[in-house]
Write a structure and sequence with these properties.
The complex is a heterodimer of chains A (about 325) and B (about 260). Chain A has helices spanning about 15-30, 45-50, 65, 70-85, 95-105, 215-225, 235-240, 270-275, 305-320, and strands at about 5, 10, 15, 30-35, 55-60, 85-90, 110-120, 125-130, 135-140, 150, 165-170, 180-190, 200-205, 230, 260-265, 280-285, 300. Chain A is α/β, with parallel strands linked by helices. In chain A, helix 4 crosses helix 5 and helix 6 (about 215-225) runs parallel beside helix 9. The N and C termini of chain A lie far apart (about 50 Å). Classes of the chains: A alpha/beta (about 325), B alpha/beta (about 260).
């Protein structure tokens, strides 16, 4: 059976959820072989094996943390040479897309980014993408070389599929470019204790209508009552009310949760681009004409300062 | 010595227009007004600020695209860039990201560069991979997705805000940089700038000027193929209620019905 390389996104050995989703998709195409790099790489094996990785290729070196992107490209290229896979799947993070693109160019292969689904076909994997602010759905294939495809979070369910997950050392020789861009400092994000925005099943977002950084406490309280991540529109971020890392939209995160709750967000095209593929959409907005109401499954025309706290209280009392 | 800055820009269909596909499944560029990609304005802005700080600098704006793409160059020139290069060739129609990076890399080399600055992504393709591809082709450091950037003594430094951490990056020139929409508001062209732009040089190059064969680019030369494109079905109209004092409770009832509570 053909092997499919899966690039592992992990933090000190803790595998992030989008990688487990990639294993689900990889199994539709062939037998998953995971590639884990950097500190804690070998610690990823148990989780990867549980979700279908037949083999886990690992390599650790200081270069992965000390230099940007290129050392990881070198390693993935070495893995492609060692495995001759049917396809290479990479999580669609900013870094993942850069790694995938450089790899594709080096191995003479086409690249598809931001796939939201993947299926096998006689002509290789077919990727589904949402384009033009999710107003169109396209199906594409890589027509030259080994398909390199990056996949967005929440594109597939995480499935248990126990496999061997045998750990093997990957031999990597770094290229001359590997040490070109030095990482001279790193400040980890402070954990909020809430789920990752792109991975969350429920996202609660606030926009211009929230009207001040201090009022985001209302949005956070609602999010916490549902175990949700917090998002913000560009207007709220540009106003300095909430961090850019939480921005949902064209220049922020693109999310596709089971439930998206938009509060005080009008729903400009740039925002819709980042949330339109959510399964269920709910909005609270004062303006009955706001374009967000064209998208909703349920909308409340009203003042979020009345509706949101009442909703939070009601959820809490129902959950007991 | 003069710091040679090349800014890559893209002419894109207006994101607020009714964007769609042409019959050959390429982006339809005829029916929707085009403009300089909003995200590339940030690249032009940072180039202008870096040039201001340098003793001597020259900014060349490069675009690859059809005739109308000159509008994007004019906008960048009116913001303050010095000169422009328009790579235009009928054989470029349908070129993918890999092909675009080839054309840009050749054009950047021909123009001469110490520093390449790009936006974080285009607003139509939205892949965000072209700066990394151009760096790979040029064999120079990629210092990408910066929210803050500065150049001093032949070294570019910047801050890259990732999901897990915020990183400080550093590389020697020549290098390829990309900047995010957090890097600083782009200036509006002044009246004087608009008038001055009309006199600034815009060179036109075709594929033969860059030593690129037609088969390497275009729809035929693309390493990816789009099989189908379908408009996303409109979402079925939802229930909209007016808050009469019970809006939050009604919403909770809906969420409970959908098993979210």
């Amino acid at each position: 059976m053909a092997e499919v390389l899966v690039y592992v996104d992990h933090v000190d050995g803790a595998v992030r959820k989008p990688t487990l989703e990639l294993l689900t998709l990889a199994r539709r195409i062939g037998e998953p072989v995971a590639v884990a790099l950097g500190a804690g790489a070998a610690d990823t094996a148990a989780a990867l094996a549980e979700h279908g990785a037949a083999r886990v290729l690992t390599h650790d070196a200081a270069e992965y943390a000390d230099y940007l992107v290129v050392p990881k490209v070198d390693a993935l290229q070495a893995a492609v040479a060692a495995v001759s896979p049917a396809a290479v799947l990479v999580p669609s993070s900013a870094e993942g897309k850069e790694i995938a693109a450089r790899l594709a160019l080096r191995i003479g292969s086409g690249i598809i980014t931001d796939a939201v689904d993947l299926e096998a076909s006689d002509e290789g994997p077919v990727a589904t993408q949402s384009v033009f602010a999710a107003s169109f759905t396209t199906k594409s294939r890589v027509s030259k070389g080994t398909p390199v495809i990056t996949v967005k979070p929440n594109s597939a369910a995480v499935e248990a599929a126990p496999a061997a997950g045998s750990v093997e050392a990957l031999e990597v020789t770094f290229s001359a470019q590997a040490t070109g861009t030095k990482v001279t400092g790193r400040t980890p994000r402070e954990s909020t204790g809430r789920p990752e925005l792109t991975e969350a099943a429920i996202v609660v977002s606030g926009g211009r209508g929230v009207n001040g950084a201090e009022n985001f406490a209302l949005i956070e309280a609602l999010a916490d009552s549902l175990g949700a991540a917090v998002g913000a529109s560009r207007a709220a971020v540009d106003a300095g009310w909430y961090p850019h890392t939480n921005q949902v939209g064209q220049t922020g995160k693109s999310v596709s949760p089971q439930l998206y709750i938009a509060s005080g967000i009008s729903g400009a095209i740039q925002h819709r681009a980042g949330m339109q593929t959510s399964k269920t959409i709910v909005a609270v907005n004062k303006d009955a004409e706001a374009p967000i109401f064209d998208l909703v499954d349920y909308g409340v025309v009203g003042d979020l300062f009345d509706v949101v706290p009442q909703l939070t209280d009601e959820i809490k009392s129902r959950k007991g | 010595m003069s710091l040679r800055i090349v800014v890559t820009v893209k002419y894109v269909p207006d994101a607020t227009g009714d964007r769609h596909f042409a019959d050959d499944l390429t982006v339809d560029r005829d029916d929707v007004d085009g403009l300089l990609s909003e995200l590339d304005e940030y690249a032009v802005e940072q180039a202008l600020q870096i040039a201001d700080e340098a003793d001597d600098a020259e900014i060349t704006v490069v675009t690859v695209g059809p005739e109308d793409a000159k509008d994007a160059l004019r906008k960048a020139l009116s913001m303050g860039a010095d000169k422009a290069v328009h790579v235009e060739d009928d054989d470029l129609h349908g070129t993918d990201a890999i092909g675009t990076s080839l054309v840009l890399a050749k054009a950047i080399e021909k123009a001469g560069y110490d520093l390449v600055i790009s936006g974080m992504a285009s607003t139509d393709g939205t892949m965000g991979v072209v700066p990394a591809l151009v760096a790979e082709r040029l064999g120079v450091p990629q210092v990408t997705l910066l929210s803050e950037v500065s150049v001093e003594d032949g070294v570019v430094k910047g801050r890259r805000d990732g999901d897990a951490a915020s990183e400080q990056l550093q590389a020697s020139l020549p290098a390829v940089v990309s900047v995010t929409d957090q890097s600083g508001e782009a200036r509006y062209p002044s009246f004087k700038g608009i008038m001055a732009a009309k006199k600034k040089p815009v060179e036109s190059w075709d594929l033969s000027d860059l030593g690129i064969e037609a088969e390497e680019v275009g729809l035929e030369g693309a390493w990816t193929a789009v099989d189908s494109a379908a408009a996303r079905p409109a979402r079925t109209a939802g229930t909209i209620v007016k808050d009469e004092g019970e809006g939050g409770k009604q919403l909770a009832e809906f969420l409970a019905g959908q098993k979210f509570i």
